[in-house]
Amino acid sequence: MSRRQRKSELKSTLWFMPFWYIIGAAGLSVFTFYLDYVVDVSLYLPAAIGFSGQTLQVLLSALVGGVLTLSAFTINSLLVALTTFSGQFSSKMLVNFVSDRATQHVLGIFNGSFIYVLLNFLYVTHEEEEFIVATPVLSILTAITAAVTFIYFINHTTTWMQVHNISSNMNTKSKSVQASLEKELTSYRLDKEVETESLPPDSKGKVIITSESGYLQVADFTRLMKQAKSDNILLRFNVRIGEFVVEGTPLLTYWENGQTINPDRYSKSVEIGVKQTEIQDLEYGLIKLAEVAIKAFGHNDPLTVTNTIHQIADLLKSIGQSSNFSPYLFDEEEELRIILNQKDFRYYLHKGFASIREYANQNSTVITELITMVSLLSKTMDKEVHKDLWEFARQTILGFDNYSLYENDCLYILEQLAELAKNTGNQKDYLFLLEYMLQRVSSKSAAEVPSSL
Cβ distance 281 to 244 under 8 Å? Predict the structure, then answer.
């Protein structure tokens, strides 16, 4: 497992952050023991805030039970939240909630508080003449912190479960993945055109196959680039990041330049696992957002569907700006070393919206929102993708086959379609779709329908 993947896996588990809080609690307990039994700070503080050994044991026993009870309520709330996320939205969201820093810090605070108070309880004696200050004061402050954290966690959970926050957090996560990937590859990309005719033929290339089945999760491009430069070869990916492969699938193709290489060095630079991850996979973020919208159809929740469509449109805009990058990666000497297998914007547009369109079952409200977002994208994106946007909208409209529309629904769809046609320069094709839509309106009102642009 690569360092980057290991870091991602650690962030998606619940034990990593609480582990550090427990270590901190043990250190704080040692420091408290030092204050009370080595320095004896009670000599320098008012007697009113001190406790005898027996009284302090009673206090600490109550605090241990109280903090443990709060921890139990927190775990119960966490399980309810995870169950709700899984059933109402998507099981893929569990990782997002668990890996959220606020969630992990809350669990860490409760575990650390319990361990701290428990350790303090162990070394306090029953001696009446014993006078202790630091242990009771810090233990009470720790219990107060745990109580306030419990309130914060309830508020955090209810806020996180709101539709707009769910979709926005998923969108932000996907954008961070994209930004990280772009940062990793930018230094290897040049404003240099590569003629496909100048590339070596496949017949002269040698293939590296996969030794196991699973998803291509991560590729260490820096390591691959250094190795390809050292061996003086050209390397091409045959599969995309996030794609599922079976054992024996051609993974990489390389062309040697006079020297024999060890293929195992390149196999070790890619990770294949049993699940998809968001470390380098942009498509996975779109799939998760689309699944939230699809789940919302089953719960008759149009607000979730609409909000998710908005977030997908925002993510598509971000992906569209990077998907136009060249798949060719060069070394420091501007020699072509790696050819990526990447899809164009049309593919991501289909992945983001097509499944929602399918499950909408010709729901005119959802279709109108889809066309609206496609029209909005046409205003903010380069002309290179206008053809893809219009083609998606055209196929969506043609999907209303043998389906009757209300007059106002048809009007709203055509308004957005007319704007999209104007932005993409498809006015002639719009007239055909206009006639097609009017045939599906029971009571036509041609004066209200935008027949011209």
Answer: no
Q: Are 88 and 298 in contact (CB under 8 A)?
A: no
How many other C-beta atoms lie within 10 A of the C-beta of residue 247? 11
pLDDT tens by residue, 359-403? 887 788 898 999 999 999 999 888 888 999 999 999 988 887 666
* Residue 11 banded pLDDT, cuts 50, 70, 90: low
Contact 115, 60 (CB under 8 A): no
Q: Cα-flanking dihedrals φ and ψ of residue 337, to 5°? A: -120, -35
Digit-coded pLDDT (tens) for 23-55: 999 999 999 888 888 887 777 777 666 666 677
CA distance 131 to 138: 15
Residue owning tokens 């990309």? 189
pLDDT tier at 172 (50, 70, 90 boundaries)? confident
Report field, pTM of the whole predicted structure over 0.85 = no
Q: Who has greater pLDDT, 272 or 257?
A: 272
Contact 442, 448 (CB under 8 A): no
The predicted pLDDT at position 325 comes to 66
Residues sharing a CB contact under 8 Å with residue 28, sequence separation 6 or more, in sequence order: 116, 138
